[in-house]
Amino acid sequence: MTDFTIASFNVKNLIGADKEYYEFQTYTPEEFAWKQDWLADQLLSMDADIVGFQEIFEEEALQAVIDEFNIRAHAHNDATIPDKSKRYHKKVIFRKLRIDPYDTAALAFAPNTADEGIPGQRRPGVAILSRFGFKGTPEVIQDLDEPLNIPFPPLRGTESAQDAGHYTLKRLSRPILKARIPVGGQVITVFNCHLKSKLGEFIQPQGADFAPEEDLTRYDPVARALGSLRAAMRRMAEAWVLRREIVRELTAGNPVMIMGDFNDGEHAVSSEIITGETPFKNYAWMQRHNAKQKSDRYSAAENTQISEAVNAMYLHSAEKLFVRKSLRDMVYTSVFGGVFESIDQIFMSRHFHPDFDGRIGEMTYFNAFNDHLTDGSHADAPYNKLASDHGQIMAHMTLI
Question: Is residue 361 within 8 Å of residue 334, measured between CB atoms?
Fold first, then answer.
């Protein structure tokens, strides 16, 4: 058996000191040092084998955090792990206490293709850190070879030839990073994503300094709602692009794990697009697609066929598997306006589900590192600008 851990970590705007990432937003050298310290300490607490990072503006800044982690990991091991001269050095507890540095780990960074390096107008990318390395070269998905054109069918009662409109997606707001990672004799396809946020998208007229909806002294609730609609459509379209890639891997028989900042809860439409349809209990109860009369339903054999087809493509939430195992009723990775919710997720194919006879492993535990989330009410709240505004999540996996 092989044990490993996989984690998702939204670091919140990681960039070097004195570099304007969004308009008027920079870190002083002291602030960057504080953020680097906090991030390295958080990585030390997690000690994950595979980490998917979001909101990385520069690879160099992430590498600086990893270098600081390595310094601390070596110092920790020197202080707590006895050398071979000690007769008790083989005790199991020291294997548990040891933290493996990322000295030989592989790092894949996917910069945002929309990032032109213009101060104040930067765009973040994502990264994957793996102690197991990668099989082949990780793949970046952001600019689509063929634009995604989503046509809308006419509503019932309108002319069939009428154009009901369409939505076209040419580029994802942030890259999806796809890596094949060899673990314990298996190769797992890992996706790291950061879908479009709920922040409204407003159109800035040519020659104007800002979009009209951004002027809150002339608050326009209807126009701002339209901005939220644009963001939601983009997020769901990006979710479908990710789903298409996932299905390709599952169809090829590859075990899959997906992590990242989905900017939506597990039961949001965008998340359900990614995980796939929830299998129906018994399709023999369902009226056939080509029914000629009320009693035309799928047969028992067709129920088995459909159930297998749906289950083979369905993804399972690590959080929900943890709740099922532990009877714990709440995990959260985000706090805003008094609302606690999970918008960061780890999903996995049925290759890791305990009820699947063909499983190659399963999750044994799940961590949520969220004690730093304060919603502005905690004494440490002023430092939230530098710490992450997301909780980190980690799944403990065992391959069999």
Answer: no
